Amino acid sequence: xPTQLQSQANYAYRQFDHQINKKIAFRExxxxxxxxRIQSWMNQPHVIPFWNLxxxxxxxxSHLEKALAxxxxxxxxxxxxxxPMSYWESYWAKDDIIARCYAPHPQDQGIHLLIGEPAxxxxxxxxxxxxxxxxxxxxxxGTEKIVSEPDIRNQKMIxxxxxxxxxxxxxxxxxxxxxALMFCDRQSFMxxxx
Length: 194
Known about the structure:
alpha+beta, 8-stranded mixed sheet
């Protein structure tokens, strides 16, 4: 089981979820602190088919250095009760490959995620975590839409996105996968979740 974070002062977002009775938090990825953790998660059997980043430590370092330098996205570690257990990428859709698939508003944001720790799988945590990240992104006042493009084969994740309020638009072809283009607009999210 992963250890708790020593200092919680660097969380970018925190909330308590009453449905699962747990604290949810996100903090930005720090290369040295998170390299081994993310590399381990990307090599988990449930992650490999959808992320295709089963890299050794050296290649994962190069990948993360490039990702952290990319100003169109911010990488996060997600926590439940101060235990690191998930990886997130929040990105600006207009500067992402997804912009080739629809006409993004300049403030549209997107989400990539994975639950890395196997001990947290199958316990109903994906939806509360996704709701929290969506709420976090909607703190940006200009953002009216959150987009996602889960792998079309990942029906469990597509179902979680739908339960969160994302609506399937169409199937799209991205360089690394066939995906489900999904949108969640601010108004419908707030109506559903307050």
